[in-house]
Structures are given as C-alpha cells and as structure tokens.
Amino acid sequence: MFSRAYKTVVTVPPLVWVTVFLLVPYFLMFCYSFWSVSPAQAIVHSWNFDNYKELLQKTVYWQTLLRSMWIAARVMVFSLLLGYPLAYFLSFYAGKRKDLLYQMVIIPLWVSYLVRAYAWKTILGSDGVLNTLLQYVHLTSHPLDFLLYSPFAVVLTLTHIYTPFTILPIYAALEHIPRSLVEASHDLGATPTQTFWKVIFPLSIPGVVAGATFAFVLSLGDFLAPLLLGGPSGIMISNIVVSLFGAAYNWPLGAAISLGMLVIVVSLLFLSERLEKKWSFS
Amino acid sequence: MGTERLDHQPPYRRRVNTVFQSYALFPHLTVEQNVAYGLRVAKRPAAEIAQRVAEALDKVKMTAYAKTKPSKISGGQQQRVALARALVNRPRLLLLDEPLSALDANLRRQMQVELKSLQREVGIAFVFVTHDQEEAMVMSDRIALLRSGELEQVATPREIYSRPATAYVAQFIGHTNLLKGDVRGGVVRCASLTWATSLPDGQALFSLRPEHVGLVGSGAGVSGGDAVRVRGRVLHQAFHGATELIRVECAEGLVLVVRTASGAGVQNEVELEFSPADAVLVRESPERK
Amino acid sequence: MEFLVSGSTGNIPRSRWLLIHAAAVFSFLYLPIAVLILYSFNGQGVGGFPPHHLTLDWYRILFADGPIWDSLLNSLQVAFAAMAISLTFGIPAALALDRAQFPGKALFRRLVLLPLILPGIITGLSLLMLFNVMGAKLSLMTIVLGHGTALISVATTEVFAGLQKLDRAQEEASLDLGANYWQTFWRITVPNLKLPIIGAALLIFTLSMDEIAVSFFLIGRDNTLPLEIWGRLRRGITPEINAVSTIIFVFSLVTIVVWYRLRVRAEGSADIGTELAEGAARADR
Fold first, then answer.
1. pTM strictly above 0.80
2. Which of A56, A133, A156, A257 is most exposed, with minimal Cβ within 10 Å?
3. Which residue of A lies nearest to B94 if distances are taken between CA atoms?
4. Mean pLDDT of all residues in chain A?
5. Which chain A residue shows the shortest CA-CA distance from B85?
6. Chain B window 113-172: which residues touch C at a Cβ cutoff of 8 Å?
C-alpha cells in the first residue's frame, strides 16, 4: 500500500538523525577511550590501551563500580518490594478507584527528579525535618548522622524515585493476565494465595524483569543523587566520570569508563530481554 | 445443590468444576500440569496425581500432548484438556459455559457426541450453557430456558418443543405461529378462525407449529372432522432443504407460516387446515427489565 | 455465566494488608513532596519541626529573582525546540517502524528507544564528545539537540502505539479516492494521531523542562531552570528553592493530569507501562 518513495521519506530523516546523534557519538566515545591526555590538557590522538590498563589495575575504580552495583541492587530490590504489592493491589483490588490511583502513581514519576531529591535532602539533614521531628518527640536526643551524606541516603532517594518505574511494567503485566485464569484456578480449588503464587506471579514475571531492569540500570548510572546526598562514602561510578570530564580533566579515561558502563547496561538489557521472552506465555 | 447454597461459598470450596468458554488453560503450564492443577492444590500424593491425570488424559484422547504447552494445540484440543482438567477432580457437578461456541460446525457436532458419551461414562450431571437451540435439543436430557435471568421453563426437549409454557419458549425454539384469540362461550375466535374449546372466557394465546398446518389437497392433510380451515394468499416461499416454509396471508391480516415437504408445487391461492388440538395454549411473556 | 462464577477474588484479611501496604507506599511517594510544599511557607526556612509562622516571603523573593526567570525562559525555549525536533523525527520514525522494512531495522528500533532507559550521563557525554570533535561551542543549542535526540523515543513510542489503533482501511480509502501520500498524511493520518501526538508533545515538554542529566554536560553560558536550581543547591540550601520546587510540582501535576486525560480519551486506558516494558527492551516486530 505504501510506495517506496513514501517509505524512504519516512525512514531516511530519522535514520540520519539517529546515526549522527546517537551512533556516531557512541563511536566517538569508543575512540576517545583509546586516546590520552597530555600534561597540557590537550587530547592526544595516539591509540593505546593505557586507559583500560588503568581501570583494570587501580582498585578505586573496581571498588566504586562494585559499590555502585550494590547500591543499584538494593534500589532494585526495595523498589520491587514496595512496587509489586501496590501494582497487584491496583490491578486486582482497586475497582472503581483504579484510574485515580494509577494517576497517583505516574505523577511522581514525571515530577522533577531534582525536586524529589531535594525534598529528601531537606528531610534527612541533621537539622532537617526527620531529625528535628525525632528529637521533638524525644525518640532521639541528637541528630542521626547516617541519614544524610551516606549510601543510605542515596539508596533511599533512588528507591523513592524509581519505585514508580517498577510499578508500571508490573501493573501492565498483571493487567494482561486474563481474569478467567484466576476464576479457573479458584474453580479448581485453589485459594487466593495459592492462585497468586501458582498462576498470577509466574505470568507477571516479564513485568518484574522489566521493572527491575529499569531500577537497576538507571540507579547504576545516576550521579545526581550521590552528589546531593551521598557524601564521600556514597560516591558512585558516574561521579568519577563527571569529575574526569570536569576538574580532573581526563576525557579519554572518562570515555573508557562510560564505554564500560554502556557495555554493562546494554548487556543487562539483552539479558533482561531474553528473560522476559523466556517467561512470556501469551 | 441438595440442601447446600453454593453461591454463598467462595468458588474454591464448592466442589463443582467448570469448563470455561475460553477454556482458560494456564499458558505457563503444560497440558499435564494443567490437568494436575486441582489435585496439586488439594495436596494429593504424587503417585495418585500421576495416575489420575493419565486416566483423564486418556479419556479425552490427549495423552500424546501431555508435555505440550496450550499455545501449541488447536482449539478443539484445548477444549478436551479443559474437560480433563475439570473432570479429574471428580466434582459433584460439571458446569460447561458455551464450551463448543468457538469450534467450527463439523468439530462441534463431533464434540457434541463425545461430550454426551463422556457424560454417560462419568455419571455426574453436566450443566451445559448454550445459545444454540439445536445444540440444546440434541444434547440435553432436560432443558432450562432462561429469559433475562429468570427461568421460563424446565422440561425435556420434546416437551419444550411440543408443549411450550410461554410465548417466549414457543418462539425461541423452532418456528411457530402465535395466535391471539378471544374465548367466549366455549369458542375461540382468532381473526377469521374459530374453533371449540373448554377454556374459560377471556384472552388466550396459542402456539401453532408450522408443520401442524397442512395444505388442503396436498395429501398431507389433517385428519379429524374438527379441522379448522382458512383460505389465503401465498406471500413468500423459503427453501430449507428437506422442507419449505411458506408464509400465507389470510383474512383480516392474519399471516400463517406453513411447513411442507419440498418439491410440492404451490399455487398462489391456497387453503390451509389444522387441528385445534395442535394449537397449544401458552402464557404471555411480558417485557422484563 | 458470569452471575455464577464471578465475584470477589479476595478474602477480607488479605486485601486489608494490601490496602495498608498501598497506603504506605503512596505516603512514601508523596510525603517528601508534601513536606517540601509545607516548608515553602515556613517562616524559619528549611528544617526544624514543627514549622513556624506561615509566610509567603519565599515566594516573594522567588518572584524577584532575576536569574531564575532568565533560566526559566531558557528552559521554555529549549523545551519548545526539543518538542519540535522530537516530533519532526519521531513521527516519521514511528511510521517507518510500522510500515517499512529495511536492513538494520532492529538496530534502528533499539537505538531510538535506548535513551529512554540509558542513564542520562552516557547520552550527555557521548553528545559532548560529538560537539567537541565538531568544534561546536556549548550553548542552549547543544542542549536542544541533546533533549531532542533523547526524547525522540517518547514521540516514537506514543505515535507507534497510536498507529496500531489506526484503521488502515481509512488511508487506503483516501488513496483510493485519489489523494496522494502527502495529502493522505495530512488529511487522514495526522488527524487520527492527534491525541497521541499531543500527548507526546506534553510529555516531551515536561521531561525537557525537568531534564538535568543530559543538560549537565551540554550546558554553555546560559542555564536552564533545573541547572540554575542545581547550582544553588550545590552552594547551600535556600528556602526559596522550596518555593520554586512547589511551583514546578504544581505545573508538572497539571500537565500530567491533562496528558493522562487525553490518553484515556485516545485509547480507553492510559497504560504506558506496556510501552516502557515492551518498547525499551524488546526486539522489533
């Protein structure tokens, strides 16, 4: 039905744009990672593996990467623990309020990251809301230090930000489950709890995988929360990259780390895609 | 059920099983696992489960597909699995919600026969929901006809057809002529038709099946001296294979539908006759919310 | 048969726990924002409990704050420009994915959707390197290019979903009646995609206004609003930030509710989770 000219016209412009502004930049990042920086702060285009050697040998990079992954993993787990029951409630128990409650889930999702991270900063500070509240009701006698400028604060904030991200795919997966399957399960004698574990949960796994992937990948690459709330002990891998492109001025090294992150993220995406396919039955 | 109210109990305690219209097979489980579901949930021992599942699959002839997933088998095969899954639990009663509506005509007829013999074999009551009246007539020992959620009549297929209780039942199954008449002094008057009756005075509604109306002189005449006769003009003749349905307009606007054997030539002007015994009294079926 | 078999699927104790959990999670999601809003009226500034004398001072200071207004203006310009770019390239991309076959289509689809799930730092840095190599100076223009590129995926996803609901026969009828492809596109295709396009535009606008991660690396001399706020946050907390955050929240809230209503009208449900789940991580169809 559509002529070749039509198809060409709709395909070529986006293709060109995407090539220039997505593919080429990634390729450049790849190139940069093999260059180095001269003492005069100029980029030297000599091809070598120095950056990668540096990354593999210096422990600080590994430590930070592992810490970042640990933070991301915790965010993923907490987001799922918070998000799944809510998604389940929304899909199966919300009835007439479903629409309203769904809106209430997506609103925080699109409201500024900055606003939400900042909110936590004001709450967790040593004379922030939480500390003064605790002292006001005499639960504590002095401010709790670990609340702010710690990995704890980063995990808390990122969980807050990414929980709606996990709720959405899980909710979508749950909504796709035909209710007749739930009826059939009851008909065959299974209680609601048995029905959940034997029928509903297995069929929702693709949504869980998608949500978990979002939470993990986006947390892993986050640099704003650590900057605002992480303190020295909460530095994540992206912060290292940021400083390499800033004050520490070593673009090639930064590019190498970024490329590494890109590879990790894309691998995770492939992995999660395969997992989703494996657990998809419709 | 007996003295027990089933609708007050949650579904998983009723010991009644259902075959769903969409089959509702669990897509993430194999055929075998689907059939075993009810038994697993009841925590029966593994050996018993294996044996009963094998038996059930054999009964519906799906043994070869035990390890297959539902998405890989046809609609008819899915239906058998749904049957096995329900029956393996030995319920007191089996509910079937339009299980054959998704199948094509030939497969449907085949399954009707199989279901009937399966029911005889298993020996429990099957409550079968359908919109297809032919299916209901063919398969049922008894039919319960519902209108707007309430029962109109519960009877054997023959009774429902020949002695419908209401106008709705009469019109729902097969074709019929609904005759509205006045009774006065032992005589029914409907348009230009009259016949004797023992009904009290008042309004009465009658159902007259087209096959009980004959064409005078066609050889398929109506015996009995009390035959009611009327002349009319043929409006339309419809070919239905073995028989034909003829619409005839009579005096005072009354239109009668007549069923005759195919092939008989029919004139434009005809004379019809029927026996009053074939005009069955039926109740009105007023509009329901 | 529904009257026999349907009915509640839960027994009461279980759904009560779920309800409590749901309420708790919603509190977790909204309380920090509520605190923020409350404290934007707090005379004592940030921190301290309970908040003392309510005041509009912070809002007054905010409205007199020049740089904030400048950055807001910048953000608006960027947002509209980004919207233009994303739609101009995102709509054809959706059409291409829906209707054309070409080598590398799978890669194309993944590439287009990648910025949606990739951490912003990677998108931002890669573009920074591009501009560096091209010798381009960082400015609002580079930010526009960054946002536009990153948000094409939003336009593509929404329009693609809208295309699935489109009755193909309508376009066929138009061609049959003598209109050419260009006319059919503007007279039939676009009007039918009106709601997804508006929805996408709203979403892109909001996301661009709030965007920090990519902008962080592409910024020149002029700040966008989030980056202006960010700069002040780095220097210390000023309570007027509470005020501006509250205002941002209110605007986002309104925009999202409007977007949601539009979407429900367009498609009967506003299930964006499906696209996030399917679009960002699945292969092409």
1. yes
2. A56
3. A187
4. 88
5. A188
6. 129, 149
